[in-house]
Amino acid sequence: MAINQRSVVEANGAAIPVLGFGTWQLEGDVCAEAVQTALACGYRHIDTAQVYDNEEAVGQGLAGSGVARDEIFVTTKVWMDQMEEARLQGSVELSLKKLGLDHVDLLLIHWPNPDVPLKETMAALSEVKRFGMARHIGVSNFPVATMEEAIALASEPLVTNQVEYHPGLDQTPVLEACRRNGMALTAYSPLGRGDLLSDPVLVEIAEDHGKTAAQVMLRWLIQQEGVAAIPRSGNPAHIKSNFDVFDFSLGEEDMDRIFALAEPGGRMVDPEWAPHWD
Ligand code: NAP
């Protein structure tokens, strides 16, 4: 079988590197070093958020890496208490200041907030893009109906919906909706927060390919049309090995065995403010 060497997902004008680096729960020097390690290993897509409280550390990692700014795809996310028009732009200005950047490549609404009209939030998000503070915009944790409402309300194209996606969780409705709308699905918690690493099916497939269960999960994700993944690690060996997924591919049988692992209770990130999921 031909090995899929696709390095980006094309989505409504954006070229999103298919494998990014997540930074949730990485802070301070540990975070800055992890970002530098990721960039040295070849990652060109870094994911942060206002609420992670690490935008400064991510900025230090970017600056210290020696990699040219225009080679790196940087995402941040606007937190739920900054969704009003009067706040959103100011919050992005602060994010850029902390990151040490004049723009991000992708700016996401972190979670839907039913207390603020979506029309207002999408207008403010679109405006921030027009001002050049973000090259692309999108959403995160949006169920299909809310995502399609957001698309209709935004005056600029949305390029991704960042949602939880790993072998334990079926995301077919969201993935199909993203594909229908020319958007990517960015898979967060792609390793099931580490909990799926000892799954016997994944371990067996990994052994067959001389790979790790983490590499198999990431390969399974990025082999799906329109899917990017953003694993997180604070461990340099894991950061490196998680990027080493471009020299093998999974056949249809392996892909299907992994699809069959999804379970109704497979969702791991489900806070009290979560929307009604698809
Ligand atoms: P994840 O990437 O699925 O898993 C991270 C866990 O797996 C860590 O405990 C890490 O430990 C371990 N790990 C990573 N690589 C490993 C390897 N090769 N071998 C063994 N263990 C390994 O979890 P996540 O952080 O929840 O998700 C990834 C990113 O998605 C986040 O960092 C964040 O950027 C984003 N995210 C977004 C949202 C949202 O609401 N939009 C929500 C959740 C996450 P070590 O550090 O020891 O390697």
Provide structural commentary.
- The protein is an alpha/beta fold and 278 residues long.
- It has a single domain, classed as Alpha-Beta Barrel (TIM Barrel), CATH 3.20.20.100.
- The protein contains 10 helices and 10 strands.
- The strands form 2 sheets. The chain has an 8-stranded parallel beta sheet with strand order 3-4-5-6-7-8-9-10. Strands 1-2 form a two-stranded antiparallel ribbon.
- Strand 7 (134-140), helix 5 (144-153) and strand 8 form a beta-alpha-beta unit.
- The longest helix has 15 residues, at 85-99.
- The mean pLDDT is 97.
- Bound molecules: NADP nicotinamide-adenine-dinucleotide phosphate.
Q: What's the CATH class, please?
A: Alpha Beta
CATH architecture: Alpha-Beta Barrel
Q: Write out the distinct hetero groups bound to the structure.
A: NADP nicotinamide-adenine-dinucleotide phosphate
Helical amount: 25-40%
Predict the CATH topology.
Answer: TIM Barrel
Write down the secondary-structure element order.
EEEHEHEHEHEHEHEHHEHH
Radius of gyration: 18 Å
Q: How many β-strand stretches?
A: 10
Given helix and strand content, the structural type is: alpha/beta
Strand content: 15-25%
CATH superfamily: NADP-dependent oxidoreductase domain
Mean pLDDT, rounded to whole units?
Answer: 97
Tell me the overall shape. Answer: globular
Q: How do the strands of the widest beta sheet line up side by side? A: 3-4-5-6-7-8-9-10
**Parts with pLDDT < 50 across at least 5 consecutive residues:** none
What is the overall number of helices?
A: 10
Summarize the main sheet.
8 strands, parallel
Q: How many domains, as an integer? A: 1
End-to-end CA span: 34 Å
